[in-house]
Amino acid sequence: MAQPLREHWSSRLGFILAAAGSAIGLGTLWKFPSVVGEHGGGFFVFIYLVFTLFIGIPLFIGELALGRHAQRGAVGIFASISGERSFWKTVGWLGVASSFLILSYYCVVAGWGLNYFMMSINQFYEAHSADQISNIFQILYTSGDISIFWAFIFLLITLGVVYQGIRKGIEFWSRILMISLFILLVALACYSVTLDGFKEAVRFILVPSPGGFKPSGILDALGLSFFTLSLAQGVLLTYGSYLRPSEDLPKTALIVGSMVMLVSVLVVMMIFPVIFTFNLSPSGGAGLVFETLPVLFAQLPGAMLLSTLFFALFTFTALTSAVALLEVISANFIDLFGWSRHKAVLLSTGAAFVVSIPSALAGSQDLFKSWLPIYGLNFFGTVDSLVSVWLLPLGGFLTALYIGWHIDKAMIRKEFLSGTKWVSLFSIWFFLIKWVAPIAIVLIFLQKGGFINIDKFFLAVP
Ligand code: PFF
Q1: Is the pTM of the predicted complex or chain greater than 0.85?
Q2: What does the domain layout of the chain look like in residue ranges?
């Protein structure tokens, strides 16, 4: 079947901001600090950065290269390179499935952001103690109806953007709002640095503590790195397919990867000093951002404006990411079944909303009451860990094998080199993809599956 002419990004900056817009989202703003907190700080941030640099960014380049080469959606890419009946199409489907599952709980968290935006306008933190302010999240978390309502509104907004197609919708908005977010984050992080708890926060983040970070937590660091870079979710494959041959892939990947790493560090620097200054708990879990930041805002002059602005931008970054997730799912249906964009977007959003309901009700336990005792995590947590701990690393592993071992090296070399001047980087990149990424991911899976115990090697040292 002849492929319709593909829409392309209008400029390099447009693409970088859209890719960064997809990457920087709730993973960085919401998930990153809570996972760091749950792992007791320590080396976690450092390991996350190392993984991002040596495994995440190389895979990022690989996905863009595959997408650009094939000019199709996530599943179509594997079909067009390896044939319609190839096993590798599974990798594309795995990405689409991961995107779908992520979207189902992403909209719940983004909905909380919308809710905090509305509450900020009403100055909800006024005349409350730090404890009371941070407890407001618990009320929201256990109010299933409110969570569903805001998740629905958020999905509607996402739908509206994707409906309009990539240029007008995704590219346009990503530009303005990513820049505003960045400025606000830098300002808030600078303020946090002046708080009394700053030193303790740095110690918490950088110095391993007994009972805190365990080497086995590195799978979580890897999963988080994939999550934040939007890897193995079909997004970069799809976004790569809208790229022109003149685009410099390694440079673009390095710019986006650095932006993600920078924002992650900024967020942690903004949140942890608040936690230690106001004696909040660093292992706050899902609500860490909602529990700590309002406490910070309440201290500052112009609290209402700051808080409203922050949650507006929080929701916005969630939107640029959710748009990417929905785009991947829809683009696949358009590509594979010839559906119209409108039909694909509507059906995908509807399905995501249905699956989001049990996640929105996870805190109130109104649905699937025995889920928690049976699985040890509520529905929300189960979907999140299924995706971040297993599906994303698995998708990354298969993508690395595909590029490193299966397809024609000359073809991928040509795609890598098209548009870049960094010719000598190819061999290092290929080595990382062929050897380092798969071996690291397998080791981490073996650890997670209980076949090896790396904690023993590290913790045996007194
Ligand atoms: N990288 C996003 C984040 O960290 O919030 C999550 C994400 C967005 C993953 C978009 C995949 C995607 F397509």
Answers
A1: yes
A2: 12-452
